[in-house]
């Protein structure tokens, strides 16, 4: 049996997340996050042919590599952020630190143009190598008991929506996921942050630094809120780091937020939003 398996990426994601910091841990966290994927010509002579028919599906599975993992040795038990330091088996988690650093995400298919698919609801860092794309098929991908909805007798008076719900009621998840999902974080925006967002929403001058490549400016508040409500901080940063400031990027915007864990529920305040290019220029000026 061959031990050394080799895979060739079919393309690389371009998304609104340039760094791991702030990238959602799951695709369902924010539906407004966007990106695209072009099929490489080194894979197919006519890469657009590989996407024929995919536009008939609303969602697709993206199978990718966690290429930004730092080599720290494999561990059979890991500490999911939601468990605040408690360890569970790696295969009972979605941790990126796995024997084979392969990730799976479900994205909404927005459009197909030639050799490129446009996606939303992404939780993938820009530049991530993709191994495969598969269409999402509810009839096969949603666990059900007994007969499927389409096989139910037509004489049944029960609505199809109720049948679908009844068929999926015996799906279980770990208790710690259920408890963690109850935690709520209030997200607030300072007046300064809201004024910063308005600069992105001015569309007269598209050549200025206040522009976005992937997401819509009108969705900025929602995207930032979705990310922060899910608390993107690591367990170490939450428990042992005295600095409550948190920095992350969305598209071309650099966001500064401040977490207050003393309130009930916890609160995070968005302090400032500036273009990444402008921040880099400011940093270079200070260093010189």
TrEMBL record:
<keyword id="KW-0949">S-adenosyl-L-methionine</keyword>
<dbReference type="InterPro" id="IPR023370">
    <property type="entry name" value="TrmO-like_N"/>
</dbReference>
<dbReference type="InterPro" id="IPR040372">
    <property type="entry name" value="YaeB-like"/>
</dbReference>
<dbReference type="InterPro" id="IPR036413">
    <property type="entry name" value="YaeB-like_sf"/>
</dbReference>
<dbReference type="InterPro" id="IPR036414">
    <property type="entry name" value="YaeB_N_sf"/>
</dbReference>
<dbReference type="InterPro" id="IPR023368">
    <property type="entry name" value="UPF0066_cons_site"/>
</dbReference>
<dbReference type="Pfam" id="PF01980">
    <property type="entry name" value="TrmO_N"/>
</dbReference>
<comment type="similarity">
    <text>Belongs to the tRNA methyltransferase O family.</text>
</comment>
<feature type="domain" description="TsaA-like">
    <location>
        <begin position="7"/>
        <end position="145"/>
    </location>
</feature>
<protein>
    <submittedName>
        <fullName>Nef-associated protein 1-like</fullName>
    </submittedName>
</protein>
